[in-house]
Amino acid sequence: MYAVQMRGITKRFGFVLANDKIDFELIQGEVHALLGENGAGKTTLMRILYGLYHEDDGEILINGVPSRINSPKDAISKGIGMVSQHFTLVSPLTVAENIVLGFNPGLRLNPRSIEEKVKKASDRFGVVVNPSALVRHLSVGERQRVEILKALYRNINVLILDEPTAVLVPQEVDILFETLSRLRNEGLSVIFISHKLNEVMTISDRITVLRDGRCVGTVSKTDSSEADLARMMVGRETFGITRKDEECTGKPVLQVMNISAFGSKGLVALRDISITVCENEILGLAGVSGNGQAELAKVLSGLLKPSKGQVLLGDKEISRSSPAELTSFGVGRIPEDRHEGLVGELTVEENLALETLDEFTHYGTVDWKMVRANALGLISQYQIKANPMDATRKLSGGNMQKLILARALSRKPKLVIAAQPTRGLDVGATEYVRNRLLEEKKNGAAVLLISEDLEEILSLSDRIAVMFEGRIVGILNAKNATEEELGLLMSGAKEMINEV
Amino acid sequence: MKFKFRIERTPSPLWMIALLPVFAVVITFIISMLILQIAKANPFEAFYYILISPLSSRTSALEVLVKATPLILTSSAVTLAFASGYWNIGAEGQFFAGAITAAFLGTQVGGLPSYLAIPTMFVGAFIAGMIWAFIPAWLKVKMNVDEVVTTLLMNYVILFFLSFLLNGPWRDPVSGWPQSPTIADSAVLPKLLERSRLHLGFIVAILAIIFVWFILSRTSLGLRMRAVGRGKDAARFMGVNIGQTLFLTALISGGIAGLAGVTEVAGIHFHITDAISDGFGYTGIIGATLGNLNPFGAGLAAIFLGLIATGAQSVSRSMNLPVYLGNVVQALLLLVTLSIILMRNYSIKRVT
Question: What three-state secondary structure class fits B148?
């Protein structure tokens, strides 16, 4: 008996074919994983099922009946609920209020009676929540349980979970999986979107693998292995390579030693990171967005204090240095978000001077002639299309990035931290930025290039480190690295095992 | 043929910006006509008394500047704070801190010549304003407590403290009025012109404008302040010490607001009562906003505010209207001007 059948689902966004004739069948009472790399089309497919998108072509059958799903409300009335990656809870309200929100008949809202109802539902489904707690006091894992209960409260029999473990700590993952298997045993059908092989193998009964918007196949857990799934996901044979991490040969400039740090949501973002970048070297740091690269860049830019570990610049410990100190030590920093590196409302010359303002100051007053001369010099040297007095926010993205580059590189830094340096730039500007980084390397600097663009990583780096879930899962020589191999490491499908 | 219009967030053309105050007056005029009709007053006459009559004689024109003096100081204080992204709503309390200090020092400096007595009061009031600004600033920098709330609440604290002084140690022993003793003659701010109340405080206020302008656009502290005010994250990335910058901002802003206390105590009243402020600190927020957080703009705005405050009084007196009606028109004019001024960041475009 199929709870859901999706046949030949096709969805385009402009020129991008997000879903290409995908077939997907969900059996009543199974946990069915939807596996694929980022951008494989998993979330799109599920958003179609939940009525957030409409398919361009194909048909959907719910319990064998052809159905058209126009909105999430429609989906819920047909028994389909979804918990997305970004929670949709109102944080100043209580758990009970959130759960009945939009699903409470009549005008009156009696706090006691809804709390009772929610308590009952919580007991019945075995999803533990405190109905009277305020959502803003809850941890991420607890919020997720509220989202799940909110869906169950609407009498659904199909539950879609979009990367539910991405935001959880390991203990919370265990609790989630327990809850899911119990709900399955009570007849609920679950669709579990993930790109993590180990989780998929733990929780699901059957697995459908998507790649580049196409369905690669559906397998049952019992007759497949992680390696099979990885092959289906990436599209080629993979080998568990055992070899030593590549080490650099020059004089080490940056040594990151066992750094751990918490991210903005209080979750562990970095776990025991160790990397070294040497003189005349570009170390590329690859990884899918959200695996800790942004936090590492922040630690190395003086914006985030690590909870443990050391960072050495030469032989100076800098893990607790302020941004101003880092600049004076010779660290050139290019932030992930251009707008985080420039004050848009200030002028070009002011932004170019701020980082080293003391050099432009005599007895507390700014030497504006010097500021102007500095700006004019950098503008011509870095071919920035702007005047010193222009408001920075009026510049194009490429020119803003050149501004940051000029500021960071003009001081001949020993170390360059470049986070997503070409994101959102046009071809010309991208080319320019890449050449500048290569030039820095040639002039002896150590460059840490953090990028999600694999082509960029492969074409610029001497060595490549890959991050996954806050850890370094491998460091390879760029000469031997391939996009496929990096992709596998980035998806957590394999980890390099170091020979001792 | 159909025209569609769209409002865009781009600065208005210059001629439009120049015309905005005129629009404000016209719109206020139309709205207040209704109110004035109810009071059976001629709106044209009322507007003459509010906007023109104060400027028509030397005496009343100088009175506008007298009224504007404390407002120039509080507006400059708030301008400095807001330009640096520190939302100081406490200029009123800092004003009182300065006024209390001036009233106290004013009675103690009788033995000193004026050229020592007066600077003593100004320095004392500046420090008092800084001290009163210190607590919210410290809470903001150390514990990230919202300064909007703390600076506002500090205003009430000092009002109660003043009330205690006036009903306790400072109560006039003869009359029993809650009013501090009169300050020494040497502490009285000298008049600038014959037959007017315009006093030295006005010069201090003008200097304060220049001081704020100098800090913001000529010093490295000022550039850091503006960076923090316009983009805190980017400023932090560029190595600006956010806490230290906000802290200095708060103290300097508080000090300038404290100076306004001296001009009122030593320039106008020669003692302090709990009614000494006509909401100068709060009006300073309006002045700073009207002046687009530019110190010179804030100065002009403060003079405009002084004008309509004078005008509101004169309209009540001359037309025999309730004082409140003058205040209503004054408030209306402010409200409309503030909304209209916002329009300078937008332009209306025809969609083709």
Answer: helix
